Amino acid sequence: MAFPSIDPGGAALAALRRAGLRVTGPRRAVLAWLAGHPHSTVDSIGAGVRPYLGSVSTQGLYDVLAVCTKAGLLRKIELPGHPARFERRAGDNHHHLVCRRCGRTEDVDCLSGARPCLTPGDTHGFRLEEAEVVFWGRCPGCAENHHEEGP
């Protein structure tokens, strides 16, 4: 199955092969689409890939996302009060900025670089591997309109 307009150069195809995963149309389409649409929900991923696949069930999308997340090709972002979001940027040390009003989500690199980039005062014996930080606020568009809409 060819995806010339969604997977130029076959980057998603190559990523699936490197991960040792079977190459399927839905997996390739989801990875390719997420490359240009980070922080997407299952609903937006479905709307984005269905024009290329014809049809794919929501359960099928969840299956693709689970397999690709487990293989390290995707990162699942679970924020309180928001649906899960997925991105291709996985395995590095970055955090997220989230708008409280509209949910816009942006990547922000960790300043110290090494994992974990933050260390608690007491690890309680845990061997730390990663720190996940979410910065909450208002994006420029929502901050600009704040005076009109209230808190």
TrEMBL record:
InterPro entries: FUR, Fur_C, WH-like_DNA-bd_sf, WH_DNA-bd_sf. It comes from Amycolatopsis acidicola. Zn(2+) binds at residues 99, 102, 139, 142. Binds 1 zinc ion per subunit. GO terms for cellular component: cytoplasm. Its main location: cytoplasm. Pfam families: FUR. GO terms for biological process: negative regulation of DNA-templated transcription; regulation of secondary metabolite biosynthetic process. It comes from the Bacteria. Belongs to the Fur family. It is found in: Cytoplasm. PANTHER family: TRANSCRIPTIONAL REGULATOR FURA (PTHR33202:SF18), ZINC UPTAKE REGULATION PROTEIN (PTHR33202). CDD domains: Fur_like (cd07153). This is Transcriptional repressor. Keywords: Cytoplasm, DNA-binding, Iron, Metal-binding, Repressor, Transcription, Transcription regulation, Zinc. One of its GO terms (molecular function) is zinc ion binding. Its cofactor is Zn(2+).
